[in-house]
Write a structure and sequence with these properties.
Elements: H1 3-18, H2 24-44, H3 53-71, E1 76-81, E2 87-90, H4 96-100, E3 108-114, H5 120-129, E4 134-139, E5 151-156, E6 159-164, H6 169-172, H7 179-190, E7 194-198, H8 201-220, H9 229-237, E8 242-249, E9 252-262, E10 265-273, H10 278-283, H11 285-299, E11 304-310, H12 317-323, E12 328-330, E13 338-343, H13 348-357, E14 360-363, E15 366-373, H14 383-389, E16 394-399, E17 405-409
Parallel strand pairs: 2-4, 10-11, 15-16
Antiparallel strand pairs: 1-2, 1-3, 4-13, 5-13, 6-11, 6-12, 7-8, 8-9, 9-10, 14-15, 16-17
């Protein structure tokens, strides 16, 4: 969190304490949700290509205040047991799982206490002093640094993958590398599925309770991040930019997606599939749903389709499924935090683990695959090709000896994309 946002946040809480309000925690969480929602709404209503430095500053400051109020007076500190390495995590419990699971499926977080925002960097450095192999900090400060760490880099908590709508769907999925996508689309076309595009609240009600809620809960269990009913309706569908795409088999709903049209882009927001029919998911109903939206977006005259949020590592199954369309990686229009990963030393096992994951880091709006290398040069000849095929701009290479970073850009990423 930047100094300006932290100072404003402190003044807000001092005023609330002086007022004698006993419901401080409830008010804080309510205010945090509203601030984050406001920043999301403002971001999605702005055109990313327009000149909007002031608007961007408002969005960033509002999001920082929201995240800050949610975690006030500072992040929780966790010891994460059951991982391949000794890991400490600074941040909320809700975001600990996705990244710590990369280092061990049977991880067990143990709360050690809470630190203050301004002490986060010093706390992280102290944890490295205590012998932790990796310290991971969730922060909304892109300039966050852990003192006295040999190697550190940041990856976004969420990123987007988008595809250019330069040609119709039939041409987008042409070629040998899109055979699986074409086969899945054809199966559902032949089965008599129909598309319905709506903004009616009764249709949204059915989508939320019959498709979205059961699907997200079944897929992610206790780790599910569920967007509340009123948030989805008021933020996405009530505005004129919102669309609800529903796939029906007869009169029965089988899949659906909320999208928002912003500028020349159709953004995928939230989706769901009928969980009582597992065969639908296995046969590729998600692929068919995206195909119908892409077909509509192209006919509507839009230039891009944003497949929505993915985790920032190449081995993420969701990332991989979207990559098959030939997507390129893009920053989220809506504000997102970063994970800063710091180490005092990088063993061969840690280096191999991080490189196998294909972690994705951002720099000045471009995205790079993180490569940790002890030889001072790209030791894996296929790594840069792997990054380019994933729609990245190149490789961000770190030396495991002295932590020095260098950028290796692709000469022509379109050569590798598929």
């Amino acid at each position: 969190m930047d100094t300006e946002s932290r100072s404003l946040l402190h003044r807000i809480f001092v005023a609330m304490r002086r007022s004698g309000n006993r419901s401080l925690r409830r008010i804080r969480k309510f205010a945090a949700r509203r601030l984050i929602l406001f920043s999301d709404r403002l971001a999605m209503r702005s055109d990313a290509s327009s000149d909007g430095r002031i608007r961007h500053k408002i969005i960033e400051t509002t999001a920082n205040l929201g995240y800050g109020m949610r975690e006030y007076p500072g992040p929780m500190v966790w010891r994460v047991d059951g991982c391949e390495f000794a890991i400490a995590y600074l941040g909320p419990r809700s975001t600990l799982g996705p990244i710590c699971r990369l280092f061990g499926n049977d991880f067990h977080p143990l709360a050690l206490g809470r630190t203050q925002f301004r002490q986060s960097a010093r706390c992280a450095s102290g944890l490295l002093d205590e012998g932790y192999d990796l310290v991971i900090v969730e922060t909304n400060n892109k300039a966050f640094e852990v003192p006295d760490s040999l190697l550190q880099f940041s990856i976004p908590v969420w990123l987007n993958q988008k595809i250019a709508l330069e040609k119709p769907l039939s041409e987008l999925v042409a070629g040998n590398k899109r055979q699986v996508i074409r086969r899945r689309i054809r199966k559902f076309q032949d089965s008599g599925m129909t598309l319905c595009i709506t903004r009616q609240k009764q249709d949204f009600h059915l989508f939320y309770h019959q498709l979205y809620l059961p699907f997200v809960t079944a897929r992610h269990g206790s780790n599910a991040v569920i967007a509340p009913y009123d948030v989805q309706w008021r933020l996405w569908l009530k505005p004129k930019s919102g669309r609800l795409f529903l796939i029906k088999r007869g009169d029965a709903l089988v899949a659906g997606m909320i999208c928002a049209v912003v500028g020349d882009t159709c953004h995928s927001i939230e989706g769901g599939v009928l969980t009582s029919d597992e065969e639908l998911y296995r046969r590729g109903i998600w692929t068919y749903l995206n195909a119908t939206i892409i077909d509509w977006a192209y006919a509507y005259g839009l230039r891009w389709y944003n497949f929505g949020g993915s985790r920032p590592w190449l081995t993420d199954p969701v990332f991989e499924s979207k990559r098959r369309w030939g997507t390129r990686v893009a920053a989220r229009l809506r504000p997102t935090n970063n994970w800063t990963i710091a180490a005092r030393q990088m063993t061969t096992a840690m280096q191999a683990c991080c490189n196998s994951l294909g972690l994705i880091s951002e720099l000045d709006g471009d995205h790079f695959a993180v490569l940790i290398d002890s030889n001072g040069d790209v030791s894996d000849a296929n790594y840069q090709t792997r990054a380019a095929r994933a729609g990245l701009q190149g490789v961000k290479q770190f030396s495991s000896v002295d932590g020095e970073m260098k950028i290796i850009r692709n000469e022509d990423s379109s050569t590798y994309r598929y």
